[in-house]
Specification:
About 40% of the residues are buried. Helix content is about 45%, strand content about 15%. The protein is of the alpha/beta class and about 270 residues long. Bound molecules: nicotinamide-adenine-dinucleotide.
């Protein structure tokens, strides 16, 4: 039997955990050879060894390290067909204010809007936190697109899949930096897709809803209950459910999809 991604090479950032690891397993199951990036070699190697792939430890905010790793991957494996820009971090600050948010919600429901207390999300957001969030997500995706196109353009084929978020579509109070970075990824995706569509390269964005991964660990039980109330399906998604969308966008079935944005959210309404 010939697998549909047989012989194709996929590079996955943040592939040592959660969605990235699930995507790597799904692509490998259909025959892809995977290169796994993460911040630590230990995290990257664990998944790469499991799947017989390569491991690369670097920070996606380092454009030179990113390009070098992708170049090395192509030297060792001969080509690059799929780039998944997935590495990401959670907005930690939101969790610490949950009691105040719940208190305010009670006041709002009782019609006492003027009694609500300021949450100060934006006032308390440090310049450093803002910078890091934009850098990891938006700059990391920019560097990933660049590093991939260097090899995909001469090849005249390729798939770039950028992991955004439903917060890029429905910005959330408490996560302005994350929402902006994820919205930026959608716009970057559309711009790059328009540039390279005629070259046989498809570039798409995936907007996961709330998926059960270590990214959500800092969220309190109350916060998770509040989030789950806004999910039509009434539950979190599983990484494997998201990986099916990534597999679709990586494969021949999605040939006509480019510059497009795909939510996998269980009916999240923002
Ligand atoms: P995760 O924490 O399980 O995995 C993220 C991985 O990225 C980790 O292994 C981490 O070490 C790595 N990483 C972080 N910063 C990095 C950097 N600068 N360079 C290289 N690697 C780095 O989280 P996840 O849920 O699998 O998240 C994957 C992507 O999905 C992220 O972009 C996240 O924003 C997005 N997302 C997740 C959810 C969700 O509910 N889990 C929802 C929407 C979007």
């Amino acid at each position: 039997m010939t697998l549909s991604l047989q012989g194709q090479v996929a590079f996955i950032t943040g592939g040592g955990s959660g969605l990235g690891a699930a995507a790597a397993r799904r692509l490998a199951a259909d025959g892809a050879i995977v290169a796994i990036n993460d911040l630590s070699m230990e995290a990257a190697k664990k998944v790469a060894d499991e799947l017989g792939g390569l491991a690369f430890a670097f920070d996606v905010t380092d454009s030179t390290a990113f390009q070098n790793a992708v170049d090395t991957c192509v030297t060792q494996l001969g080509r690059l067909d799929i780039m998944i820009n997935n590495a990401g971090i959670a907005p930690q600050d939101a969790a610490s204010k949950m009691d105040l948010v719940m208190d305010n919600m009670g006041k709002r429901m009782a019609g006492n809007i003027s009694d609500m207390e300021p949450t100060n999300y934006l006032l308390d957001l440090s310049d450093e936190n803002w910078d890091r969030m934009i850098k990891v997500h938006l700059y990391g995706t920019f560097y990933g697109c660049k590093a991939a196109l260097k090899h995909m353009q001469p090849q005249r084929s390729g798939r770039i899949i950028n992991i955004s978020s439903v917060l890029g579509l429905y910005p959330a109070a408490g996560a302005p930096h994350y929402s902006v970075a994820k919205a930026g990824i959608i716009t970057l995706t559309k711009s790059v897709a328009a540039e390279v569509a005629a070259l046989g390269i498809n570039v798409n964005a995936v907007c996961p809803g709330y998926i059960r991964t270590p990214l959500l660990t800092p969220f309190s039980e109350t916060m998770m209950a509040g989030i789950t109330m806004r999910i039509g399906k009434g539950r979190l998604g599983e990484p494997e459910e998201l990986a099916e969308m990534i597999r679709f966008l990586a494969g021949p079935e999605s040939e006509y999809c480019t510059g497009d944005v795909f939510s996998v959210s269980g009916g999240y309404t923002g």
